[in-house]
Amino acid sequence: MEVRRFRPPPGWPRPPQGWVPPPGWAPDPSWPPAPAGWQFWGPVAQAHLTAPVPRIKVPVIPPPAPNGFGSRRKALEAENAQLREALAVAGIVDDSARVERIRMMEAQLQDVLAQVSRARAELATVRDELINASDTALLQAAGVYAYAHPLDNAVGYKERIAAIKEDTKAFVRTGNAVQATTNWQVNGSTIEGKKMVDDFSKLLLRAYNTEAENCVRTVKPQSRQNSVERLTKISETIARLGSSMEIRIDERYHRLRCAEIVMTADYRAKVEAEKEEALALRLDMKEQAAAARDYERARAKWEKEKAHVESSLAALERRGDGESVAALSLRSRLEEVEAGRGVVEGMAGNARAGHVYVISNIGAFGDGVVGIGMTRRLDPYDRVRELGDASVPFRFDVHVMLPSQDAVGLEKALHERFAGRRVNLVNVRREFFRVGVGEVLEVLRGMEGVEVVEFVERPEAPEWRASTP
């Protein structure tokens, strides 16, 4: 084919970088060396053209980023834009191959967008599950335990665990704990093959049971789910290692062992709860016994005082001084004794009567923390002194000591009012709240039938202040 060379006219454009000439075009060697990046070409029967048609350079699509579909989508959009721009510059808008390429890229882009949408939906679901799992783990670590199988007491859990163990033993005795192939052969012998499969099955079952017993022995209420997942991974590992012989732990047997782990965790949580209840009951009984001793001592004191006053008054009347000043004084004292005795009898007969106190210990708990409780002691400060024993470094300051015929109801109302500001959100018997004394006084003054006569707003804390440099 004859190639016609021509001398490019003035202003011949610089070819685009990477441009490859069409068929039938050839460089013109008669021209002096062209500037950097220039070449002169001449077409056959196309010398009238003023510029060559550039070849479209298809960009390389980068692989998707490991963190999602965002980079893949951006690469496709960039490639699409570059192709359209190149087509517009070259004027080749009717090239069917390139149009089909663009159409395929647009379809691929739509697929990527759909994948991104599905991935975002799955991510939202996983995040919700992760948040719920994190909240559950946090609450269980703090002691707020959700029983998988709520029972009344620890004895019920113990009986249920014993039943699960019996079912587990039955699975092992009947050979249903492990599933395996039945047509394995060794040196052409099915009997030898069956023996090998049985040996491997026993070995893998032994490893599984060892891990299961370890999970049962070490499980705690807050690590229940982790132990179940750990045993599940062991079951999956055994299935993978025994895949050639199709050896795997039977799913029903695995569920039994997981149920044993969960039930053991529930049992231990119930045991701890019962210990807490027993301790609280002992403390209540101790407080009631102390209050009963106070009442008995007060009764004996008033009875003795009454007998002494009555004896003295009778002696005066026998001497004929029944209307003397001394006799009048004794009669007044007898009325006081009867009133005091009536108060003691009233408190002893009313299980809800007592004193509600508001105390603080800035040296132990810091500022802004108060304790709100009640006591049925005749001398309520005895209870405060007991709270400030060797378990805390400083004695408590008393801000309010309020007598009430319904001290139980008053204490409960205050606890409900400040329930969201408890220091210990797990054990409600810990009666300390992050609240100021002034706020407690305002609540008390707003209650019907409650009259606060004396209160101390600023804690004295003499021991703490003397110990603080």
From TrEMBL:
The keyword Coiled coil applies. Residues 102-136, 268-319 form a coiled coil. Transmembrane segments: none annotated. It comes from the Bacteria. It holds the Pfam family MUG113. Keywords: Coiled coil. Residues 8-31 have a biased composition (Pro residues). Residues 1-31 are annotated as: Disordered. Residues 364-447 form the Bacteriophage T5 Orf172 DNA-binding domain. This is DUF4041 domain-containing protein. It comes from Umezawaea endophytica. The lineage of its organism: Bacteria, Bacillati, Actinomycetota, Actinomycetes, Pseudonocardiales.
